[in-house]
Amino acid sequence: MHNRPGALGPVVGGGISKKKPKKPVVAAQVKDKNSPKRPRNSYIFFTLMKRDDIKKKHPEFKPTEITKMLGEEWQKLSEQEKESYGSMAENDKKRYQTEMENYDANGGAAAAAAAAAAAAVNEGSVGSSAGATDLSSEPWRG
After folding, report:
1. How far is residue 73's CA from residue 43's CA, in Å, rounded to a whole number?
2. pLDDT band at residue 135 under the 50/70/90 scheme
3. Under a CB-based contact definition with an 8 Å cutoff, are residues 55 and 66 in contact?
4. Residue 130, Cβ neighbours under 10 Å: how many?
């Protein structure tokens, strides 16, 4: 049946792999804790103001049900009613732009990265007691 010694049978699939090539792993970016919070949009302002009202009227609702109801109420609003929330969003956008300008003027993410690197160096320096802990009492130390 098989002409070659050690042959197990016919090759199925033609030898072409159907697997997708793996994507390269990208390191996660570390967010600077001092960076300004991003601006909120008009829908977020609407939900912040209305969520408590819905919770009081319907305490039995789950968070997903409350979110669904908020979305339905948002869709029912007229453009004029949405405009008031839009003005809040515009003000928040201006706040964000001002804070980002100040943040960038003071070194921004580069300054934060340098500070984090300096802190890591200080923790790992030889002879420094900063960050050193006594692990002799740990049960796994034996």
Report:
1. 11
2. low
3. yes
4. 9
Q: Report if residue 43 sits inside a domain.
A: yes
Within-domain flag for 135? no
Yes or no: say if 48 and 67 are a contact pair by the CB < 8 Å rule. no
Which of 76, 83, 85, 91 has its CA nearest to residue 43? 85
Angle at Cα 78 formed by Cα 76 and Cα 84, nearest 5°? 115
Tokens in use for 116? 């984090």
- What pLDDT is attached to residue 128? 46
Taking the C-alpha atoms of residue 103 and residue 110, their distance in angstroms, rounded to an integer, is 10
Tally the residues of the chain. 142
Range of the domain at 53: 38-107
**Residue, of 137 and 81, whose pLDDT is higher:** 81
Q: Name every residue whose Cβ is closer than 8 Å to that of residue 123 and which is 6 or more positions away in sequence.
A: 130, 131
Q: Is residue 87 over pLDDT 80?
A: yes
79: domain CATH number is 1.10.30.10
The verdict on pTM exceeding 0.70 is no
Single-letter residue type at 53: D
Q: What's residue 64's pLDDT?
A: 95
